[in-house]
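R.M. (postdoc): so does anyone remember the format we settled on? I'll just put the structure tokens first.
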């Protein structure tokens, strides 16, 4: 099902919103709300922590690097250890594991945040970009009380989600899709397709409150 959306640029720059919408540039993006896939990937329990080396200076890690909190003022970048892996402009942090195959599932507690992005990105993605704005990242986001899917700077609304306390993320590398999972049902709410050819990392953007990750989980039964 093709959904017409604006080619919108909506991202956060260390606490500031950068947004440009062009009424003259609209396109159809084929991101089905719910699709069944035949997977050839092998399921495994991915265990990861957040990688402090990648964390923007406005983000602090806690709970043994499984949680991240946003600090509006942040640290002076000059006071943060210089690292080529660190995101320089955007409030983003990666997980510390690279994924090159298989089917993986993790969950994120989101109840203490009103603006965030969850998904995956190529490990070698530019540290000058924000997740969702390029062709090497695939995310689900929440802002202004609405969910959306985003890749290559294209935004598609995701409906019938509400604001759960916790959501799941399902990655099928060979199957070529990322799914947002209702952990109560459980069911796949929405999928984003991608051609994954490079190692991926769990990826998180945060501009309010905190997120807590839960990895090493088995995939719920019944997810296609």
């Amino acid at each position: 099902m093709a959904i017409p959306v604006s080619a919108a640029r909506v991202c956060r720059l260390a606490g500031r919103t950068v947004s440009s919408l062009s009424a003259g540039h609209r396109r159809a993006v084929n991101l089905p709300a719910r699709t069944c896939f035949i997977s050839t990937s092998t399921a495994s329990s991915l265990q990861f922590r957040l990688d402090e080396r990648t964390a923007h200076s406005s983000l602090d890690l806690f709970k043994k690097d499984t949680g991240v909190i946003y600090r509006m003022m942040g640290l002076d970048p000059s006071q943060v250890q210089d690292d080529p892996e660190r995101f320089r402009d955007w409030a983003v942090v990666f997980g510390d594991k690279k994924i090159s195959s298989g089917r993986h599932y993790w969950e994120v507690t989101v109840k203490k945040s009103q603006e965030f992005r969850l998904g995956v990105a190529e490990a070698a993605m530019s540290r000058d970009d924000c997740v969702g704005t390029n062709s090497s990242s695939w995310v689900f986001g929440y802002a202004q009380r609405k969910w959306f899917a985003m890749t290559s700077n294209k935004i598609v609304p995701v409906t019938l989600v509400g604001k759960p306390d916790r959501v799941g993320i399902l990655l099928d590398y060979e199957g070529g899709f990322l799914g947002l999972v209702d952990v109560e049902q459980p069911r796949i709410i929405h999928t984003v397709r991608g051609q994954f050819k490079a190692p991926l990392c769990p990826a998180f953007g945060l501009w309010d409150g905190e997120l807590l990750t839960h990895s090493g989980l088995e995939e719920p039964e019944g997810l296609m």
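R.M.: ...and that's the designed sequence above, right after the tokens. Also worth knowing: The chain has one domain: 52-214. DSSP finds no helices and 17 strands in the chain.
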